[in-house]
Amino acid sequence: MTSSLSELEQSSPFENRHIGPAAEAQAKMLAQVGYGSLDELTAAAVPDAIRSLTALDLPAARSEAEVLDELRELAGRNQVLRSMIGLGYYGTFTPPVILRNVLENPSWYTAYTPYQPEISQGRLEALLNFQTVVTELTGLPTAGASLLDEGTAAAEAVALARRMGKVKGGVFVIDADTLPQTTAVIETRTVPTGIETVVADLSEGIPAEIAERGVFGVLLQYPGASGAVRDLTPVIAQAKELGAVVTVAADLLALTLLKSPGELGADIAVGTTQRFGVPMGFGGPHAGYMSVRAEFARSLPGRLVGVSVDADGNRAYRLALQTREQHIRREKATSNICTAQVLLAVMASMYAVYHGPDGLAKIASRTHRYASVLAEGLRRGGVEVVTGSFFDTVTARVEGRAAEVVAAAAAVGVNLRQDGADLVGIACDETTTRADLAAVWGAFDVKAAELDIDALDAEAGASLPDALLRTDEYLTHPTFHAHRSETAMLRYLRSLADKDYALDRGMIPLGSCTMKLNATTEMEAITWPEFANVHPFAPVEQAAGYLQLINELEDRLAEVTGYDKVSIQPNAGSQGELAGLLAVRAYHLSNGDSGRDVCLIPSSAHGTNAASAVMAGMRVVVVKTLADGDVDVEDLRAKIEQHRDSLAVLMVTYPSTHGVFEENIGDICAAIHEAGGQVYVDGANLNALVGLAKPGKFGADVSHLNLHKTFCIPHGGGGPGVGPVAVRAHLAPFLPNHPLQPTAGPETGVGPISAAPWGSAAILPISWSYVRLMGGEGLKRATQVAVLNANYIAKRLAPYFPVLFTGPGGLVAHECIIDLRPLAKSAGVSVDDVAKRLIDYGFHAPTMSFPVAGTLMIEPTESEDLTEIDRFCSAMIAIRAEIDKVGSGEWPAEDNPLHNAPHTAAALAGEWDHAYTRAEAVFPAGVNPTTKYWPPVRRIDGAYGDRNLVCSCPPMDEYEG
User: Fold this and answer.
1) What is the C-alpha to C-alpha distance for residues 156 and 581, in angstroms, rounded to an integer?
2) Is residue 585 within 8 Å of 614, Cβ to Cβ?
3) DSSP β-ladder status, 171-175 and 197-200
4) How far apart are CA 827 and CA 819, in angstroms?
5) Is residue 262 part of a domain?
6) Rg, the chain, Cα only
7) Residue 824 · residue 854 · CB < 8 Å
8) Which residues form the Glycine cleavage system P-protein N-terminal domain (predicted)?
9) Which positions of the chain have pLDDT values less than 50?
């Protein structure tokens, strides 16, 4: 029968691409679970009290071609001018070999955080390269694997200085020439914790009246926001005499020419790696950095890649030390960082690998020389250049004419920075051309035609002090010298990607992490120049397309969650948590309730919850969790009564951290509200709710969302992410805002959470596209299939592994927890053994030992089809049979495939004296030899790596060996 045109046009092919199981497979799975339809299943699983009875009010789904056309129209509304604004964001050339083979390559962008290091050796090596670049350029021996941006890195440095410094009181002093967004982020972060900050001109040292108050930390910008390069040694020495910890926020490209912060005496260096090949993207995502003196290494916030050894003694990489500090220290943590910017750190590291030290220095020298010629031309034209010594940024004085000059430059396609009525800032970068200089001179009424650039170049004096020029070598490791040709670089990138396991290889069934399809259509627009090359502080009228996309996404997220207002500024889930709690704090203060500072948190909660609460100036009170995973309501009510007058908020994850729909969530919310508190629902598990229930309607006041989970932004090997905060109307006045872009938030907001006004804006087209492609009904079906897939796995595995927690009707939500603890007792097989054995079967392990030690939390998402799900279930069932062989004594406890997993090709080729065969080791049941994934290393010794901390490229003799 022929279908009508209207029928064909109304079909939504993308939904069928995104959702793995087709209708026939869904029917088979539903029969296994015991339900006749998706609606019947979710009606049984989702409690009546929270279920939404109305459809999502979203635009109808559109095809991939239609959505790309819409995106092109939005992109066309952005004006991409030559940006010479500076302030930490610069034009840069992304080498095409890196653009195509990292940013646009699913082998890199669909990987998860390297918590299973044996199958993450490629990106761990890339991150080790990143750490090496940072340590050697900053002159400090230990660097992390990236932070969220420069502003938040500086705020982390303040907390680190408070934690590690000798002065336990006093103030934190910020130099007046610091990037304004950095100062603002620090102020947002320090006010709730009672840290006092002082902004002062430190060009002549720390003023006596400030020194007398006690100084625990100092932040200096190098070069300054004005462009000034000055010798920081005297003020650093003065700060050290006062007992202060000194942080220098440094431009990495400038450090290829200038003395390092470490050589100047700094304890901590922070900054961004954006100009190492990562587009501005209207503010992000970009990889921030932090490096520290050796004695601070074990308190470094965020992630740290270290060098260890595997079971054969071969060098291997892993995340080291306090990688998830907040999970260990919880309410005692000084950082809530749970993520990084891995994909962007990889790009920046590869930019350094590709160019090498000589190439980086040449780019820096060219950038600096353009700035010098620019300044000389301005002087010749009678313009006062305020900046004496500078690297790339010149500040000019034009009494009362700054706005006129900036407008004149914009009219000829160049954005400059206005600083008050009299000052104009002009920043050069590696993309600056001679035509740009002529345009800038013209905007200042300097006759460009009368200036000979070559003559100016020959006559312009030195703009950097000889005493501050770098003399030591850096990036001497062979990695930074061996990949100059594109052929070599291409093969290096391929060799690293081949070592890793990402979604392009198979399912990553991590509970609470939602590793679903990151569709190519959704990803396509992020590299378009109309999105990639916009400066975050460009005039808002030049970003009309961006702002429309952002506003539409925020409105659609509000509809999905049932809240009234959303801010997409937080650039990670942890930052969304903090933003939400700061909104709650500000709300109570606005009502005169300054004593409301208690945050109730269930004992099973994600570790960031407690850390975020402390950072928001709250006291954490733990609420018990019952054996079935639910919140202990009796203990909750007791805690409410105990802290009634000081109760600020309850933080709870829904569905629960244990992967079930708690039936009494409405009553819990009501009890908190009755006591005058607010309810924060952690959005980590939103993939079980979209289209079925809305937190903002069943009692919550605020949530953060994870666009890198539910809304398809890829995890990028451990970042980027976006953690929007969604609130009901009474909290909306307290959402984040930004001093440099008033339209980015309410005037009464809590200040910036991220350095950029709209956070990681460059990747928002991904989530916008996902919602547009799916429509309301498609989003709902995605949720229903996610619930179906999880329940199907639970049903299949239940005869072999106990399913630890279930909700209504014996059902789970979008994930299930299987209990391995009985097997540890009966057979001596650990959860680690099972996780590593799954590698031999071609899988990334589920989440280990969270929220319960000795368990696996499995989340298949809606994007995995029945074939892959069955392959996983079969692998788990086969592993159970292997465990039984160990338990029965058929295989020795210390020599079996689980204990020795994973098995490498090298191990297979060597001598074999094990109690099991080579085939049993590497080709267990269901593994296809022609498509097998081979791990590059055997099981890694974590303790060795922590005892012998090495976090940059190993010495050359080891490399050669």
Assistant:
1) 18
2) no
3) parallel
4) 14
5) yes
6) 28
7) yes
8) 16-443, 452-736
9) 322-328, 956, 959-961
Token readout for 295 is 């004695």
Distance CA 347, CA 326 (A): 27
Query: Residue 896's closest CA among 873, 909, 910, 879?
Result: 879
Concatenate the DSSP letters of all residues of 560-572 into one string: HHT-SEEE---SS
d(CA 55, CA 61): 14
Domain boundaries, position 212: 116-341
Residue 839 to residue 844: CA distance in whole angstroms: 6
**Could you write out the DSSP letters of every residue in 65-92?**
HHHHHHHHHHHHTB--PEE--BTTB---
DSSP string, 164-208: H-S--SSEEEEETTS-HHHHHHHHHHHTTTT--EEEE--TT---H
Q: List Cβ neighbours of 458 (8 Å cut-off, separation of 6 or more).
A: none
Q: Tell me the Ramachandran region of residue 310: left when phi exceeds 0, alpha when psi lies from -120 to 50, beta otherwise.
A: beta
Q: Is the peptide bond before 285 cis (omega within 30 degrees of 0)?
A: yes
Work out the angle at residue 923's Cα, subtended by the Cα atoms of residues 920 and 929, and round it to the nearest 5 degrees.
160
Whether 618 is in a domain gets the answer no
Q: What is the pLDDT of residue 866?
A: 98
In sequence order, the 6+-apart residues with CB closer than 8 A to the CB of 677 are 596, 600, 640, 647, 648, 649, 650
Q: Are 469 and 368 in contact (CB under 8 A)?
A: no
pLDDT at 326: 40
What is the C-alpha end-to-end distance of the chain, expressed in Å?
A: 70
Q: How far apart are CA 608 and CA 613, in angstroms?
A: 8
- List helix spans (H) across 228-332: 233-241, 261-264, 325-329
- Report the pLDDT value the prediction gives residue 948, as an integer from 0 to 100: 76
> What whole-number distance in Å separates Cα of residue 645 and Cα of residue 583?
19
Which DSSP letter does residue 693 get?
A: B
Domain count, the chain: 1
Alpha-carbon span 721 to 507, nearest angstrom: 20
What phi, psi does 328 have (nearest 5°)?
A: -90, -45
Q: Is the dihedral of CA 351, 352, 354, 356 positive or negative?
A: positive
Count of H helices and E strands in the chain? 35, 26
In contact, 844 and 858? CB cutoff 8 Å: no
Phi-psi region of 81 (alpha: psi -120 to 50; beta: other; left: phi over 0): beta
Give the pairing type, strands 142-143 and 171-175.
unpaired
Which tokens is 364 given? 């820096």
Cα angle: 369, vertex 151, 616; to 5 degrees: 175
Which of these, 51, 47, 464, 68, lies nearest to 227 by C-alpha position?
A: 464
What's the number of CA atoms in the CB half-sphere (13 Å) around residue 112? 26
**Number of residues written out for the chain:** 961
Structure tokens at 130: 């990143």
The token pair that represents 737 in the structure block: 């805002």
The helix/strand/coil state of 414 is strand
Rounded to an integer, what distance in angstroms lies between the CA atom of residue 916 and that of residue 895? 8
Please report, to the nearest 10 degrees, the dihedral formed by the alpha carbons of residues 321, 324, 330, 331 taken in order: 90
Q: Which two tokens stand for residue 21?
A: 């199981």
In angstroms, the CA 846 to CA 512 distance is: 10
pLDDT score recorded for residue 372:
97
- pTM given for the model: 0.96
Any domain includes 353: no
Show the 3-state SS of 445-461: CCCHHHCCHHHHHHHCC
The tokens for 56 are 């999502």
Is 283 a member of any domain? yes
Per-residue CA distances from 758 to 48, 180, 567, 786, 850 (Å): 37, 16, 8, 30, 32
**Model pLDDT, residue 4:** 76
pLDDT at 327: 46
CA distances from 748 to 583, 612, 744, 751 (A): 10, 21, 12, 8
| CATH number reported for the structural domain that contains residue 249 in this entry | 3.40.640.10
Q: What single-letter amino acid sits at 179?
A: L
